[in-house]
Amino acid sequence: MIKIDEKEFHCPVELTLDIINDKSKIFIVYILLGGQKRFKDICEAFPQITQKTVTQKLKELEASHIIERTVFAEVPPRVEYALSPIGRELEKVLGSMHAFGEAYAAKYGCKKEH
């Protein structure tokens, strides 16, 4: 049994799924694998996600210690988001998901027309 912030988890997989529990969070982590990004860059990378959703998911990922938010003392203020050291560990998970997606698409996906 794992207990974190009054929540109990039966195994590490359940804990991981609780942290990255939707595709918007996974997309954000994926884009941050390329390095620090500003809010606008994240929104532009995945236009299917609304700005409201991006804002909410960034807050959740920050609360889970997956990303770090840096505010620069400039006018206008500049804010950048990056993966934390523990957030970087998700690169292995997403790499496996990427490889699975490629294999699945190769076997069951549509063939491209030339």
Description:
- By secondary structure, this protein is of the alpha+beta class.
- It has a single domain, classed as Orthogonal Bundle (Arc Repressor Mutant, subunit A), CATH 1.10.10.10.
- The protein is built from six helices and five strands; from the N terminus they run ββααβααββαα.
- The strands form two sheets. Strands 3-5-4 form a three-stranded antiparallel sheet. The chain has a two-stranded antiparallel sheet with strand order 1-2.
- Strand 1 (2-4) and strand 2 (7-9) form a beta hairpin.
- The longest helix is centred in the last third of the chain and has 19 residues, at 90-108.
What structural keywords apply?
114 residues; two-stranded antiparallel ribbon; alpha+beta; three-stranded antiparallel β-sheet; Arc Repressor Mutant, subunit A; 6 helices
